[in-house]
UniProtKB/TrEMBL annotation:
Residues 392-797 form the NAA35-like TPR repeats domain. It comes from the Eukaryota. The gene is LOC108616396. This is Protein MAK10 homolog. Residues 40-50 have a biased composition (Basic and acidic residues). Residues 32-59, 339-368, 620-648 are annotated as: Disordered.
Length: 800
């Protein structure tokens, strides 16, 4: 019987199951009673052995079938009726399933030893339209038509389109483009437009050229994002149906000319039409013109590395962006003139779109529920994107690392959600550095940046010490090490990632600053040693230039401190911290980090002032040693005095950090007071270990030698000492800190919006702390609300 079954090998699954069941039933019937007893004894022994193995479970433990079915399976009697398919272990659990579900709250998951959180996150929910592609179809539905099938059926027009139809298709394509930039699959948004599948077969010239421009724009955008390399999988779907893009070769250089030609033809046609028809056709012209200028601006970003001058290239980009921004209000006013989406339909336009044409070609993990942006919201997105592009063009003004990094941090805070905007900024910056400094662009850029930050004499080509070959050898070694470590490159580059990824990458970046700190300190030490050697040789000018040199270590430490502060405070923006953790998160910047930043900037200013005084001294010596002391020479010698105020370039930033210091101190004391007052909900002690949480929050700072890591024991001692004060005193201390922050912020002239927001936070929290210090709501121990709507790092404390 077994041999016959093996030789037949039924191809049908049901027939194979029935044959196997029949073979098992025949074997069971022909077995003798003694063999059955022996088999049962062996099965009992095996069951006992398996029960001792912790990694093995019985069928009843797994819960795959009830006890009667298990006995039937073990006894072999389950195969008596081979017409039933399949009967092995199948039980109707519908009622039990609904009863179990009724015990779960929304959002809860049932955990099993074979189905945990990992399996739940990667599971595909069958019969859920968002995940199961088959649920979007009815068995009587016809397959979605391809471009050729739609043309044969007359579902789409290739020629003789009315202006309203062109406006509807153009608006829908812009909506699809925006949906693609927001992270959706290219196949599920852009290539649902059948016209994009074969633009060369379209006879209507305006539609053909527009669709060709969209296809080329896809290629250009992909190239910019790939080269910038600041995208993550949640930001952007780079790859789609590449066969469609390869079907017609991209020629971006010809697109602007084609669009201009169509515009001119339609403008001439407008002159022969009535007023209403003229307005409809001009709406088509405006969309074609907007596409032309937007395409040219983005395409010029891709071509910028080969330009002769960064300023000229950016000026040309800026001109196109200006025209595009002027056209958008005109386009938004004529959205209603085009064909509109059918209510209840997934297609963004009645003609030319097949939303489900690519569903069967997608892997099962793709998000199935795609909602394309509405047309007004899409044009609003494009208007904001053009404004971000114009703002990004300002990056070429910043010629040193300090100012460029400030610009990138500010740009990321304002425009971090748009992957194309972030990629354009990276491309513009890299191209401008390449055009400005040539082949060894980053090394020259860093040399120039250190010189702009604290002006070391050894980097001044006019200073005699700059010609010393030994000094230049040490400098070359240091900057080559900076380039090899890629720390400074990565700091600017990670500002192009989305805000959540920035924090992850900052943790690794901070670790890389430690070897740079060591190398910078070694370089400064060598310079001091060489100063002593030059002094012994009698070379006073060289010795003075090299003596007490802390230029390079200060520069490295300042950038390290900034990375640490951004990492720590970004946790508030990303809502990673629990309220009871605020105390030590604000404590670290207050006690250490912001003080280090102020110290580094103050030291830099002192270095610049000392150099200025030395330059004035040398100038006076030269004047006094001259044969004639004309008024003109005296005026030239007095020039450095006029620049004294300019030698404090970091005064405003120092004032800003003093304000942050007071705000962090106020929040630290306020959280201590609220905790001691019983107004902060604390985790249960048996589920909590504050030391572990503390160590994890500050783990990226541990590898650094400067600043040295602060252990949990040190923090606990400082906190316990603070908590010796009464609750009223702690509230009063917090109020004083907020009052100090208010005074500092009010002293800033011409404040930006961030300063005004921080000023409102300081004023409000000052009032709240004073109210609590006087015993307001003393009997009510409710946790206050921490409102971060005004600022990402500092909340307004609101009493409930």
């Amino acid at each position: 019987m077994h041999g016959t079954y093996a030789s037949e090998q039924p191809t049908d699954f049901q027939a194979a199951t029935a044959a196997a069941a029949a073979a098992a039933a025949a074997a069971a019937a022909s077995a003798s009673v003694s063999s059955m007893r022996t088999t049962a004894e062996q099965r009992d022994m095996e069951r006992e052995q398996n029960s001792n193995d912790p990694d093995e479970w019985s069928m009843s433990e797994c819960g795959f079938a009830d006890s009667e079915v298990q006995r039937a399976i073990r006894g072999g009697s389950a195969a008596e009726d081979i017409t039933q398919y399949p009967i092995h272990g199948w039980v109707d659990v519908t009622d039990e399933f609904h009863d179990a579900c009724s015990e779960l709250l929304p959002g809860e998951l049932a955990q099993d030893m074979l189905f945990g959180l990992f399996e739940a996150m990667s599971a595909i929910e069958i019969m859920d339209p968002k995940m199961d592609v088959g649920m979007g179809f009815d068995k009587f539905d016809l397959p979605p038509p391809s471009f050729e099938a739609a043309v044969a059926m007359g579902a789409i027009k290739l020629d003789g389109l009315e202006p309203a139809e062109l406006i509807g298709i153009f608006d829908a394509l812009f909506a699809c483009l925006v949906s693609w930039l927001e992270g959706n699959s290219m196949d599920q948004v852009l290539f649902t437009c059948l016209y994009l599948h074969a633009p060369s077969q379209i006879q209507d010239k305006a539609l053909r050229v527009f669709c060709t421009a969209v296809r080329n724009l896809i290629v250009v955008i992909k190239n910019i994002i790939i080269l910038a390399a600041v995208n993550e999988e949640e930001d952007f779907q780079l790859y789609g149906n590449s066969a469609l893009l390869a079907a017609e070769k991209a020629q971006p250089s010809t697109i602007a000319g084609l669009l201009k030609e169509v515009e001119d033809e339609l403008v001439r046609k407008c002159k022969q039409l009535t007023s209403t028809e003229n307005q409809n056709l001009m709406a088509v012209v405006h969309r074609l013109r907007f596409m032309r200028h937007l395409f040219q601006a983005i395409y010029q970003v891709e071509l910028m590395p080969g330009a002769d001058s960064a300023e000229e290239a950016v000026n040309e980009i800026y001109k196109n962006l200006n025209v595009a921004s002027e056209l958008l209000p005109l386009i938004k006013r004529t959205i209603d003139r085009g064909t509109q989406p059918v209510e209840g339909s997934e297609a963004p336009n009645p003609m030319g779109f097949s939303p489900r044409i690519h569903d069967r070609s997608q892997p099962p993990t793709f998000p199935r529920s795609i909602k394309i942006r509405e047309r007004p919201a899409s044009y609003q997105f494009l208007e904001e994107m053009v404004a971000r592009f114009k703002y990004a063009c300002k990056v070429i003004r910043y010629k040193d690392y300090y100012s460029a990094l400030n610009f990138f941090i500010e740009y990321s805070r304002k425009s971090g959600h748009c992957i194309l905007s972030r990629s354009v900024l990276q491309s513009l910056f890299n191209s401008s550095i390449l055009l400005a400094h040539g082949k060894q662009s980053m090394k020259q850029f860093l040399r120039h940046s250190v010189q702009a930050f604290n002006s070391p004499p050894v980097l001044n080509p006019k200073h005699p010490v700059a010609n010393d070959p030994k000094v230049q050898q040490h400098l070359e070694t240091f900057f080559r090490y900076c380039i090899n470590m890629k720390t400074f490159n990565q700091f600017i580059r990670l500002c192009g990632f989305n805000r959540a990824r920035q924090r992850d990458k900052l943790a690794h970046l901070i670790e890389n600053f430690d070897p740079l700190q060591v190398d910078a300190a070694r370089l400064d030490s060598l310079m001091n040693q060489m100063a002593n050697d030059r002094a012994m040789e009698g070379n006073e000018s060289h010795a003075t230039a090299l003596k007490h040199s802390t230029h390079f270590s200060t520069w490295v430490l300042y950038n390290c401190f900034r990375a640490m502060l951004i990492y720590l405070m970004s946790g508030f923006e990303l809502e990673l911290y629990a309220v009871h953790e605020f105390l030590y998160i604000y404590w670290y910047p207050y006690e250490f980090l912001i003080g280090f930043l102020v110290s580094a900037l103050t030291r830099t200013e002192n270095i610049l002032l000392a150099q200025e005084e030395y330059a004035e001294h040398q100038s006076r010596i030269q004047v006094n040693g001259g044969n004639s002391g004309s008024g003109g020479k005296n005026r030239k010698a007095a020039k450095p005095k006029k620049n004294k105020k300019q030698q404090r370039p970091y005064r405003q930033e120092i004032v800003y950090y003093h304000a942050l210091l007071s705000l962090c101190g106020g929040m630290y004391k306020a959280m201590g007071a609220l905790t001691k007052d019983g107004r902060v909900r604390l985790p249960m002690s048996k589920f909590d270990n504050e030391e572990i949480r503390y160590n994890r929050r500050f783990a990226p700072f541990v590898p650094l030698t400067s600043p040295p890591p602060v252990s949990y024991a040190e923090f606990k001692n400082i906190r316990d000492h603070m908590m010796l004060n009464s609750v009223e005193e702690l509230y009063s201390f917090a109020a004083k800190h907020f009052d100090q922050a208010r005074n500092v912020l009010e002293s800033i002239q011409n404040p930006e919006q961030e300063i005004l927001d921080l000023l409102q936070i300081a004023r409000t929290n000052f009032v709240v702390m004073n109210v609590l210090a006087r015993g307001h709501q003393k009997e009510v121990k409710r946790q206050p609300e921490f409102d971060f709507s005004k600022h990402s790092y500092f909340p307004i404390i609101k009493l409930k």
